Amino acid sequence: MNHFSSETFRENAKAALADSHLRGALKHATSLFGERRREAAAGLPNWEDLRNQARAIKDEVLLHLDQYLEEFVRNAESRGAQVHWARDGAEANAIICALARERQARIIVKSKSMTTEETHLNSTLEAVGMQVVETDLGEYIIQLAEETPSHIIAPAIHKTRGQIAELFTSELGMPPTDDLVQLTNTARTTLRDRFAAADVGISGVNFGVAETGTIVIVENEGNIRLTTSLPRMHVAVMGIEKLVPRFADLDVFLKLLPRSGTGQRLTAYQSFITGTKREATDEGPEELHIVLLDNGRSRMLAHPVTRQSLACIRCGACLNACPVYQQIGGHAYGSVYQGPIGAVITPQLIGIEKTSQLPYASSLCGACREVCPVKIDIPRLLLHLRGEITARSRRSIRERLLFKVWAKVMMSPSLYRMSAVAGRIIQRIVPISRAWTSGRDLRPIESRSFRDQFVQKGDDPKRRDGRGVPPLQNTP
Amino acid sequence: MSTLKRNSKAREAILGSIRSHLAASVPHDTRELALHQVDVSTVSDSDRVEFGHKAPAGTSLIDRFKRNLEAVGGHCFIAPDEAGTARALTGIISDLQKTNFRAQRIAISDLPVVEKLMYLTDLEIEELTVTPNASDIFGFDVGITTAQAAIAETGTLVLDSAHERHRLVSLVPPVHIAIVDASRIYNTLAEALALLRTGKEISPTVTFVTGPSRTADIELTLTIGVHGPQEVYVIVRGA
After folding, report:
1. For FRET with A462, which of A238, A308, A376, A445 sits at 20 to 30 Å CA-CA?
2. For chain A, what is the mean pLDDT?
């Protein structure tokens, strides 16, 4: 029911707005996450310094991405990891499929990975007869329901516990209950069977450390630890932008990510995995494969405005802060990445043709920029993409002419003053811009311009009595 | 095409694409720099600001560790010596046996000190196994390990697989009991990260553990113990 397309964003959004249950759940989730983030950020002195430092580290990585990637690969390989390069999603899926088939894998456990959502890995593996089991509780629920995630941190926020209980009863044979502990225990028990039987574990990566070849994965549930400890082969799928130069840089990101995502000081678990085990008798997988995915990312390096999209650490703070996401939720975007960051990443990843409505899914209020832990200027990115869409589209001669005249008027003070006078008169006679005013009020133009009022007020002796604001010098 | 050939072809294509797109960005970067003074210089280690919480004067690292561990739902006991640690272990497990936790089958890591402590306890249990393998571990009720270090500002245990076989024992059983030396508690996350990087080599697997396993994936309501342990006990030894 929720396999929406980005091409029908407006319709999707309308449908979401009519769903009162969804809006209630969204309001609860986004305000709770938002509140916790605020508290967590306030609890750290120098939060702003931390954000600046994180951004500087990411900028450093992105400006020398080729060098840091080579350093990362060298160090990971020297410690026993096998690194695979994938130009696009299909190539990444083919690599993973081949790895699993060569080892005659039947059951694959997965921990949450947005990157594999992006490549649609599960359907590729299922098509060749493998059983793929999502093990993050939210992702597991979504997989059972044959839906897609609606929030990057809480994939199943659109579902009530009653719906989840029904799902577990029909799919897993759980006795009817809506007790949370029992629901969680049912998932725990069912998934333990799968963990014990799995041949391959697939995970994402939060950070790759260039100087050591380490991959870092953060979580709360423990399913990532199980996925990366039990099966004999671990495959980690990582976007090429996920690097930090030094191990010590993790301090900055491990402070920002949990606080921005869930408001925690630290999530329950961080796994730092550097190559394969050293002794045959050690615990853990025998093989570690790291799949590096480009899939449109390297293109974003071509301009400083688009490049900053690659600094994203997938915390979800911008979703919670966005007044548009708060109302419509994730499914309406019709894409893996949702909310403000999704509206800028998706068109760059899969092309602007099919996603041209997404950069307009914003009021440009700037709330996303304010909460972003790596200070991505999302409104500027949205405008940049809107510019690209406009430059590509064939606009009518009328529209082009209109904006040419508009630009002329805005750049000339005398023309501007004349048009304001004309506007006051015309506005009273002709009803204009009906599309605009159908959802908003268009206030009548003030009878006196700010300039006129300013000149008069500036001469007002009452404003010079020392109590009011001293008038500015009004230079003609 | 062979796998190796494909891989090196993809590698060259991706690195080539990165280089050409970065080169295309240079004129825009110059303009952007002039506009915004974006600082893209490397943050040197000497510039690095310490962002950790400063301990209020008078509180010890142990107190801080204990408070922060308890804040995330973990339990903390403090023991002066070996005998005290064994007493704490006895207390934790026998208390569990009185509840509906079945604390009868106990898995321990391969460190001799853990086994020795277990023999010092005064417990009646059905089974004690050193590092059960992956196919057996699911049947155990309690896992006991040490931790190589701890972080006071977050209440975190640092488990380093190079020193102890404790990956599964600390993860699969519903109860995890960890013993950590008081002298191995560090104040900040940054100190613990620096510790992992001393010397040239780095352990194949290091895990940070902060309290019990948790999820809020159903209606954003916190539920403890989804995939990992539901209960985490830490005994700080030598305090």
Report:
1. A445
2. 91
Degrees (nearest 5) of the Cα angle A358, A363, A367?
105
Query: Judging by DSSP bridges, how do beta strands B175-181 and B231-237 pair with one another?
Result: parallel
Domain residues for the domain of A450 are 446-476
Q: Which residue in chain B has the smallest CA separation from A78?
A: B201
SS3 B157: strand
In a domain, A250, yes or no: yes
Give contacts of B234 with chain A, Cβ < 8 Å. Answer: none
CB-CB: which of B134, B171, B196 is closest to A222? B171
Specify if A413 maps to a domain.
Answer: yes
Cβ-based contacts of B167 with chain A (< 8 Å): 225, 229, 283-284
Nearest Cα residue in chain A from B134: A230
Q: What is the pTM of this model?
A: 0.90
Distance CA A219, CA A254 (A): 11
Q: B133-170: per-residue pLDDT in tens?
A: 888 999 999 999 999 999 999 999 999 999 999 999 99
- Please indicate, yes or no, whether residues A146 and A133 belong to a single structural domain of this protein: yes
3-state secondary structure of B149: strand
The per-residue b/e assignment along B157-188, b for 16 or more CB within 10 angstroms, e otherwise, is bbbbbeebbbbbbbbbbbbbbbbbebebbbbb
Q: Considering Cα of A225, then A267, then B162, then B48, what sign does the dihedral take?
A: positive
The C-alpha angle A369, A312, A374, rounded to 5 degrees, equals 50
Q: Taking CB atoms and an 8 Å limit, are B131 and A283 in contact across chains?
A: yes
Q: Which of A28, A86, A267 lies at the smallest CB-CB distance from B220? A: A28
Asked if B128 is an interface residue toward chain A (Cβ–Cβ < 8 A), one would say no
Q: Which of A225, A247, A268 sits opposite B214 (nearest CB)?
A: A268
Which residue in the set B24, B38, B206 is minimally distant from A272, CB to CB? B206
Measure Cα distances from B136 to A118, A125, B110, B129, B141 in Å: 36, 29, 16, 10, 12
pLDDT for A245? 97
Please judge whether A283 and B138 are an interchain contact, meaning their C-beta atoms are less than 8 angstroms apart: no
> Mean pLDDT over residues A51-63, rounded?
97
Q: How does pLDDT run across A337-347, given as a tens digit for each residue?
A: 999 999 999 99
For residues B181-210, average pLDDT: 92
Number of domains observed in the structure of chain A: 4
Asked if residue A228 and residue A244 are part of one domain, the reply reads: yes
Query: What topology does CATH give the domain B61-237?
Result: Rossmann fold (3.40.50)
Which one of B53, B130, B164, B217 would you mutate to disrupt binding with A, by most A Cβ within 10 Å of its Cβ? B217
Closest CA to A117 of A252, A293, A283, A288: A293
The answer to the question of residue A263 being in a domain is: yes
Answer yes or no: are the C-beta atoms of A139 and A230 closer than 8 Å: no
| Cβ pairs A/B, distance under 8 A | 248
B162 and A278 in contact by Cβ < 8 A?
A: yes
Interface subset of B 73-102, CB within 8 angstroms of A = none
Give how far Cα A174 sits from Cα of A182, A188, A331, B226, Å: 9, 12, 28, 16
